[in-house]
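Recall that a protein's primary structure is simply its ordered list of amino acids. Everything else, from secondary elements to tertiary packing, is in principle encoded there. The following example makes that idea concrete.
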Amino acid sequence: MKDVPILAAIVLGITVRASCAQEFRGTILGRVTDPQGAALPHVLVLVTGEETNVSAEATTEDDGAYSVAFLNSGKYRVEVSLMGFKTFVQSGITVGVTQHVTVDVKLQLGEITETVDVRAEASLLDAASGSLGQIIDNTRVEAMPLNGRMIFMLNRLAGGVNWQVPTFGATGTSGLRPFDNAGGSAWSINGGQTGTNEFLLDGAPNSTRGRYNFAPPVDAVEEFKIQTNTYDAQYGRTGGGVVNMTLKSGSNAFRGQAWNFLKNDIFNANDPLNNSQGEPKAPYQANQYGVTVRGPIVRNKTFFMTTYEGLRERVPFPTRTSVPTESERRGDFSQSYTDQGTPLVIYDPLTTTCDAAGRCTRTPFPNNVLPSSRMSPIAQRILALYPLPNVPGQRLNNFVNPVNTGRYDYDSELGRIDHSFSAASKLFVSMHHNHRDEFRSTNGLQGTFANQGQWPQTRINRGATVDWVKSMGTRSLLNVRGGYTWFTESVEQLEVKQFDRNLLGFTNLPGQYMPRIGLDQYNVSGGTTSVGVGSDGRGTDDRTASIQASYTRHLARQSLKLGGEYRNVQARPITTGDYNGFFNFTRSFTQRDPNAGDSASGNSVASFLLGYPANADFGGGNDRREQWHYTALYLQDDVRVSAKLTVNLGLRWDYESGVTDAENRLVRGFAFDQASPLAAQVRNAPGAADCPACASLMSGLQFAGVNGVPRQLFDADRDNVQPRAGFAYALTARIAERLLRDDALHRQRHQRQGRRSRDRPQSVRGALPRRPLAGAGRERGLVDTDGPRHQLRRSR
């Protein structure tokens, strides 16, 4: 019986460190034989894109094998012509991300002018590689419903992928919209830790610290692949998996799509908090709209694709918080009670007395009322600006904002141009950008002087990729790619900055805006009812520039690929800290015992009215210019031992430098055996004579690059060599039939995984589990600690 190519791959992988990002395109390969199955060497094979009419060619080896690589996702036609044989044509061949599609050609005797037109679908099995993963094809990309249209949510269709669902305060789940970078990156792939996966866009890095930077609009994506195990030596720099995404390109026909997804409070139920307070449903509206256009610039040669997507969302965040009561603002705490319903006693801090044992106590204010002469006019003016309680009978959690509207404004643009100089030289350029402003109050005190938290928080992504492929004859290919990605996140307090602090009577304060003032106990989920301008600025500024190159050579029975990559990674956050000052008020100055708190005495509002902060600070911002370098080299050798057996051998070397700062502000360690830089000041300070240890103060921080300390934050490893090996073998039809039946039963149990239909051939793969272990510096090692363990999986 004719063999059916059902794949059995046992893959041995040893990976000591996270590594590199590489090829995203597919390959068509196979063998050309005569009617008796004998190999036909040196035969020209022509592969043509059906939508673009752009061609690539290859010549068969001595065993009749051929391979055409660097094919964009899409449909292709294979043509083979040889004197004495009929011309072979097979069309409708679908090539996916990183996919190796097998098209075996059996030529029939006859005239070359005669054509054998094959309509059968090519084999879906990747018989040339042991890598595991799932392709999310264009049909699923466009047809699957996505709440928020965040493309990476389709990762959930792949086996071995688990989304570590992040919560979003009390409002639900984060990660459903394209700008939810942290929540949308919280994937555990094949047991790896979240934040350690690699995201690629058109083959170039789309992440810096394990989270994606740019999420393309759904309608701009051709397809992508979640690679759960990557045994090819060209892949790496991941502690979990690789999400390899490719954009659509243009074709000889103009095509376009336009969309508008609407969400409205008409379709929503009321919020439970509003229901409990008898409040009506808050208004809500979201429109996510856009357009994609693609087509030819020069037919059969130059093509374009461009996409715009926008989102305007007005979403309620009903919030409950605590505000001072009307009488408390006047210094009258006679009606203030504890959570247990007992009177809350306010003590005078100026009456503190302590006995010989150090036990202290204070005297309560008469009638629990503060004297007007003791109260700070500035504190009184600030408290007068708070909204009054609207929940009766409660001292805390006494204010509800049933609307507390959050505002999200988002715009995303991208474009791609593909150009074919000739059948031997092709180039594409893609560029993308998006901008998101989030106005969301964490305490519900909008329109006041209160610190809102994110007003706004702004995220901006910029990036570009340039890729060139050159055929050097029919057996050699050169690919060079450059990429750049830049992600920033900043926070401002625009509404609070409009408040004139001079109206309150402040003098001699740092900065120019209202200082931040915190009141203990007056808290809200996700923030506090603190007032004033806190820390703002650019908290995240990640930039990655990369260049990758590979050279592929097809020999008689093997395919060699030599390549490498260099990345320059920079982090440049700049934040202000509390540059206008921060004053924190607690119960400590008005509680009975200054050294021990209790629930029956003291109040932060009373301490505030008296003008006694428990602590204060200034500044504490963040200004760094970090940089590090990454270099990788690899060699991959795929050997065709026979028509059924292919052996994959690879070797990879990685180097990631230690982190440096332009101003040497990184702390590398602690010097226990060196004199402290403060030793002279301490030795000569008043009272130092009574402190013997002060005469020679030892130890202090070691700053990288200062006083002979190495500039790098840690010593980098240079011995990260990773051998990789695997093989693929075609089994017999009888075994294939049994595995197909078992797999059909498995699909019925797990339909939610989005498996392929039962009439498609399946594969069985064996894989060593890999599990991330803690490693030095920023990385995580990948080491097999359990020995061989076979897992049966289906091809995707």
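The chain has eight helices and 44 strands. The mean pLDDT is 82.
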